[in-house]
Amino acid sequence: MTGKLYLNMSGNVKHTLEYRAADGQIVSFEISEDYLVEIRESALPQNKDDHPDGDAFTRTEWKGLRQEYPEISDPTKGKDLYGIPDKLLNELRGGIIKDSGRVVQGDRIVR
Q1: How many Å apart are CA 39 and CA 69, to the nearest integer?
Q2: Alpha helix segments (H runs only) across the chain
Q3: From CA 92, how far away is CA 54, in angstroms rounded?
Q4: Radius of gyration of the chain (CA)
Q5: Cα separation of 81 and 88, whole Å?
């Protein structure tokens, strides 16, 4: 099974709070600047027509690429919102700063 983990890497929790389910919990982690730069540089838009080289791919090929690379999610809502394919979750784990995990309660972050 393949899927994506959608993450807000902007540092602004507002977008995440807007989409949280009524009983949902948000966990926050800090990530290294190097990892964030890597994601920004490799992320693909959801729609191939929004990429300068998108015409070189069929829609099926583009869908396959989005399973290999991070996906830019909701660019109209804010920057640094990404879908991370399950194949890249180990890289994500490596980009998380040790002991930086926090739980968001209401609209504030607590330990």
Answers
A1: 9
A2: 14-19, 33-42, 59-65, 89-95
A3: 26
A4: 15
A5: 16
20, 53, 55, 109 from 6: Cα distances, Å: 12, 24, 26, 19
Q: Where are the domains of the chain?
A: 4-110
What tens digit of pLDDT does each residue of 5-60 get?
999 999 888 778 887 777 778 888 999 999 999 999 999 988 878 887 878 888 88
Nearest partner of 35 among 86, 88, 108, judged by Cα = 88
Are residues 6 and 83 in contact, defined by beta-carbon separation less than 8 angstroms? yes
